[in-house]
Prior knowledge:
- The chain is an alpha/beta fold and 758 residues long.
- The strands form 5 sheets. Strands 6-13-7-8-12-9-11-10-14-15 form a 10-stranded mixed β-sheet, sandwiched between helices.
- The radius of gyration is 28 Å and the shape is globular.
- The model has no long low-confidence stretch (mean pLDDT 93).
- One zinc ion binds at residues 159-160, 162-163, 181-182, 184-186.
Amino acid sequence: MKRSYNRVRLEIEGIVQGVGFRPFLYRLAGRHGVRGWVRNISGFVLVEAEGTQANLTSFIRAIKAEAPPLASITSIRSTAIPATGERSFLILPSAPGEKAIQVAPDSDVCADCLAELFDPGNRRYRYPFINCTNCGPRYSIITGIPYDRPLTTMASFTMCDACSAEYGDPANRRFHAQPNACPACGPRLRLVDPAGREIRGDAIATAVDLLKSGKILAVKGVGGYHLAVDAGNDGAVLELRRRKLRDEKPFALMAPDTAGIERHAVCHPLDRQLLEGPERPIVIIPKRPDSPLSASIAPANGYFGMMLPATPLHHLLLRGHGTPLVMTSGNLSDEPIVFRNADAFQRLAGIADYFLVHDRDIHSLSDDSVVRVFQGNPLFLRRSRGYVPRPVTLPATQKSVLAVGGELKTTICLTTGDRAFLSQHIGDLKNSPTLELLETTVGHLKKLLEIEPVVVAHDLHPDYVSTSFAGGMGGLPTVAVQHHHAHMASCMAENRLDGNVIGVIFDGTGFGLDGSIWGGEFLVGGYRTFERRGHLRCVPLPGGDIAARETFRMAISYLYDSYGEALFDLKLPFMAEIGERDRKLLLAMLQRRINTPLSSGCGRLFDAVAALIGLRTSVSYEGQAAIELEALAEQSLPSGEYPYALFDEKAGVAIDFRMTIGALLKDMEDGAALPVMARRFHDTLAAATADVCAAIRRGCGMERVVLSGGVFQNRLLTERLHELLTSRGFTVFTHRLVPPNDGGLALGQAVIAGRTAL
Length: 758
Ligand code: ZN
Ligand code: ZN
Ligand code: FE
């Protein structure tokens, strides 16, 4: 009986180039008895496949089910075409001038390469730069497109015969693996002292010995340098803190394997899945109380930020060391992470005792990504290495936009069609190195993604560095986007929402439409327009920006709001820390309204409560008080809420917390435990917020609520609010793809500007 053959043309879109997709299809075709060919075409992978209908069906199903680890298929379009009787399956070369499809993110070493790394019989045994088409550096080493060896930082290394043979063999795992290398032809690892003198012997074995003796090492990773010390050595950790000028901000840890993490922290299945994924983010997980690691790693914090080795070098180092290392970004507080060798010796000179370096350059720096799990999904605190430049799919096609973010935790966003590309973490735009980084990132991403924006979006704040940067973008039209509107649009866009929603936007600060400082906002609207329908009652910020660091000022402000001048009669414990002169000064400022801008910032409310209950009166990094207050609250079961009041104001419903503060003081007088008060405060804020949403719904009938802004990094608050809103019939949307904090702001700006008629 003669079998009938069918032929289909498949257009496969997504991250499908530079990730071993063509050899994967070649092997798959062989297994499923399919003939035809594959080739890279601008924008997608084109396949013609011929076989029996059953073979074709199983082939297409396997493409989706077994795609290489670094690939990410967004769509497969299939069209029937006439059969040709072709007998083989070929990988056809890309036509000259073919554009890159999408640049893949950096990835940890795959299981096959890891096995070879520790196989004494393998020619890459203990070679720290082992990789294949399924793993290794990508975004960080690409200098231009198309993604080909000459346009990576591997350009200066010439492959030996053995590596060339692998590279040219379609059946080999290293077919067209651009960073392919071996000890004979590739990059070399060196251990050197601060003067640049090489330490003789096995670099990794010696580095392990130095770490065990308490030394601080600068270690070159995939996106930049880390500073490493033995996490079990309290003295060494404290010394690193001292040299890095980093007072209390938690250090990240790297453990050799998942079992090594579980000895110190409590992992749920999704934590484990995130930890073990090729992106290798830092995952925030609860400490085990009996963990013997240094108490100075994450002081006053119930969590560890932990990750698994993210490069072959890390695997070698951690296996040698056996127990966790502190792996914190190689920089001085607030500066961008160091990623160039020459820079490392200069800027880390006073910090690192030794340097573990190599000659494969990093072209684009990226910090470690940081996530925690929320309701079965990742919640990004920082989206950077391993995820960038993976796009977010927008609800609709729009014009090409560049969005430059805000001031803190800046990222930029470029869009084309219905894809939005968020950059790696750039950081706080307060120092000139960060501004430089903003500039180079914009230029590099435009080139890599071949996007020529027609509009530039920026924050409404007139004094932000990013705002003036946007104005200098070669005369392109600019769109100023209100900060909290951008947060709302960011959450809408990643959830692919259109139309109008209620946006609950809680963060520290953002420039409001009325010129005051917003940060506890209830907005109603969509991408094009919005209205402010509610907010936290405004209080003065005594001293402006200083109030975000000297958080006792907020407690004083909230007390003044309730008790006026009599506030200092209250004799609260935290007041003992404020000198007589400062008290008088603060009071005078509040009375005469000098340097006391009004703010509805929700972050400042957390600061005030943390100071009132005596948790802390100042912070050394943004969000510290809120993080510690959440950690406290998690130690308590729910035990009711404090009272609060809602007032109708011109700018919508205002939540008035004066009664809350009064009840909190009463709790303190009665000697309530700190966790109980912290928990009640969280539950009060959630209840009041749900009430305002219900009041807004009565006016507009909307059922969809998006939650955004840095305060929603707080899992306890988000969970409680989610529960309350859902039980009242709302549909609630939170962030899963980009951070709720200002790291996700550019996405919202980009969509708003993309929809704005100019
Ligand atoms: Zn591999
Ligand atoms: Zn070689
Ligand atoms: Fe914000």
